[in-house]
Amino acid sequence: MPSFARHALMLGPLLLFLALAYALPFLGVLEWSVTLPRPGLGQYRTALSDPLVLSVFLRTLRICLTVTALSLVGGYVIALLWVRGGPLTRALTELCILIPFWISVLTRAFGWLALLSTKGIINVWLERLGLISDPLALVRNEFGVVVGMTHYLIPFAVFPIASAMRGLDERVLMAARGMGAGRARLFWTVFLPMTVSGVLGAALLVFVFALGFFVTPAILGGGRSVMVAELIYLNIFQIPNWGLAAAISVILMAAVGLLGVVMLRVIRPAGLR
Amino acid sequence: MRALRPHRLTLIAGALVAVFLLLPLVSVIPVSFTPRRFLSLPEGDWSWRHYADLVNKPEWGQAILMSIRIGVVSSVVATVLGLFFSLGVWMARPRMSALLMGFVLLPMVAPPVVSALTLYFFLTALSQVNDLVGYDTWAGVALAHTVMIAPFAVVMISVALAQVDRRIDLAARAMGAGMMTRVFRVILPNIRFGVATALFLTFMLSWEEIGVTIFITSVNVITLPRLIWMGLRDNIDPAVASISVVMIVLVVLVIGAKTVLEHALKRRGPL
Question: Which domains does chain B have, with CATH numbers?
Answer without folding.
Answer: 61-241 (1.10.3720.10)
